[in-house]
Structures are given as structure tokens and as C-alpha cells.
Amino acid sequence: MENNALAPPCSSRVSEQPQEIENSPPELIVSVKNLVKRFGALQVLNGVSLEIKRGQLVAIVGRSGSGKSTLLRCMNALESIEGGELQVCGHDVGAPSRLARRELRSDVGIVFQSYNLFPHLTVERNITLALTAVKKHSRAEAGVIASRVLALVGLLDKAASYPEQLSGGQSQRVAIARSLALSPQLMLFDEVTSALDPELTGEVLKVMEDLSRQGMTMVLVTHEMAFARRLADVVIFMHQGRVWEMGPPEELFNHPKTPEFKQFISSGL
Ligand SMILES: Nc1ncnc2c1ncn2[C@@H]1O[C@H](COP(=O)(O)OP(=O)(O)O)[C@@H](O)[C@H]1O
Ligand SMILES: [Mg+2]
């Protein structure tokens, strides 16, 4: 059992061994080269290339249908790929075996807009289920981990509650905690606040901000431009299945290079 639910201590934002960290180059967690994905005749990703380093917060923005969710799903081997190279947390995601896929999924957490909690199980059991069934922890060990991740998302007092007793924001925080319980190296978030009203959006964004500050490597597809602008290390604008623009948020938002991104920003999306 690990002591730290978050990123391993080699993260650039975790200061357990500062000298070593300063001297070592940031580790690549995701490397995508010329990624091609088709659904039948429809080419959804048209040669996507990007790199993500340990500890980075990467925000992916773009219009509906531009391929953002598909890109995230490829990173977690939820979709097969038709071309290019995809390395995630040291795993070759190109053509993974079943075992490789399982190992990849234990390193990469993904949270969607819908929380998908089991309604008949308590919050704690929703979190411990995969720990006991898949990771073979004892119920006692799993309970300790559940308490730790619930504390991280500020919901320790809801351990015995059922999903129907939670607000949307709280449910989403439980979904995040459930993912964190598996000690991922990388967390993917696909529009996790899109179904929430502004107040509840704020509490989920706060959890994501805390996670990032604690060193978690994160990729989020989001419409929350202010959040992306303030916290992302890198913003990626996707358009027509391509990385259309990519860079630090200040540079990208202050000096958009393409008419498509200019229009996207001005549309307030
Ligand atoms: N399982 C699927 N089968 C067929 N087409 C799909 C599938 N998933 C996504 N698409 C299509 O791929 C394109 C990109 O979708 P998606 O990645 O969901 O975009 P975004 O997340 O940017 O809105 C869209 O045209 C969508 O209709
Ligand atoms: Mg999407």
C-alpha cells in the first residue's frame, strides 16, 4: 500500500528531495506522435502530436466535435488507434495487449461529465470496490485509502452517505476520489464540470487546483477558460482533429495566431 495517493515524489511540485529534482530533467508522461483515429470513414484525429511532462496541467479546449474526448480516450486505451505513436506513463498504447491495457489503466485515471457512481453502494464502498476486487486490498486497507482520498476532496464526512444524498458537485468529487484511490500517475478529466451549476463547478475546480498543486499530472478538456488561463502550464486548442495552437496560456490567449482560435476565444466558449 502506498502512503501517497498523489503523484510519486519525483514530481517537480513535490519538495521531498529538492536537489535531485532540480537536476533531473522533467519526465515525459505522455508522448503523442502523428496520432490518427478514424471511426469508419470519419477521420477524427488527423495527426496529433504533443508531449506532457510530469506535474504539468494541460488544458484542451476547442469546439464540440473537434476530437478532444477522442484524444483523451485514446490516452487511456478506451479507443484503438489507426496510426502514429502513443506512449503514456511508459506504456506503448499503440496496440496494447489485455495485460498492458490493465497496467495502463491503473496508471491513468479518467473522470467524465457523468459520475457513474453505484447508487446502491455507500460513498466509501464506491471507492473501495475496485481496491478490493481488482487491486486485492483487504477491506481494512481499502478503507484507509478511501478515507485518505475522501479527505483530499473534502468529503470525509460523506463516507457513509449514498450517491442520491449528494449534490452534483459532491458526486463529482467522489468520482475524482475513486480515481485517486488507485494511485494514478496521470489524471484525465473530460468536461467534468459541464453539467454543474456555477457554485458546484467552483468546488470541483478547487479540488482539481489542489491536485495540480500537489504535483498530479493532469489533462483536462474544459470550457472553463478562466481556470485554464490561470492554472494551465500548456493550453491546446483543437480544431478539426488537429492541434491547431498550443502553448503557455498567456501567450496563446494574448496572441492567438489563427483566425479559428481568435474566433473561438471571441465566441466566449
Ligand atoms: N464512437 C464513435 N463513433 C463514431 N463517431 C464518433 C464516435 N465518437 C466520436 N465520434 C465523432 O468523432 C468526432 C469527434 O468527437 P469527440 O472526440 O467527442 O469531440 P469533442 O470531445 O471535441 O466534442 C465527432 O464528429 C463525433 O461525432
Ligand atoms: Mg467531448
Number of helices: 10
Averaged pLDDT, please?
90
Structural category is: alpha/beta
Bound molecules: adenosine-5'-diphosphate, magnesium ion
Q: Order of strands side by side in the largest beta sheet?
A: 6-7-8-3-9-10
Q: What is the number of strand segments? A: 10
Rg over alpha carbons:
18 Å
Instruction: Show unreliable segments.
Output: 1-5, 7-21
Task: Please trace the helix and strand order, writing H or E for each element.
Answer: HEEEHEEHEHHHEHEHEEHH
Question: How would you sum up the global shape?
Answer: globular
Cα(first) to Cα(last) distance is: 42 Å
Would you write up a description of this structure?
With about 270 residues, this protein is of the alpha/beta class. It has 10 helices and 10 strands. The protein has helices at about 20-25, 70-75, 100-105, 125-135, 140-150, 170-180, 200-215, 225-230, 250-255, 260-265; strands at about 30-40, 40-55, 55-60, 85-90, 90, 110, 185-190, 215-220, 235-240, 240-245. The strands form 2 sheets. It has a 6-stranded mixed β-sheet with strand order 6-7-8-3-9-10, sandwiched between helices. The protein has a 4-stranded antiparallel β-sheet with strand order 2-1-4-5, with helices on one face. Strand 1 (about 30-40) and strand 2 (about 40-55) form a beta hairpin. Helix 4 (about 125-135) crosses helix 5 (about 140-150) and helix 4 (about 125-135) runs parallel beside helix 6. The chain is globular, with a radius of gyration of 18 Å. It starts with 17 loop residues before the first helix and ends with a helix. Mean pLDDT is about 90; it is low at about 1-5 and about 5-20.
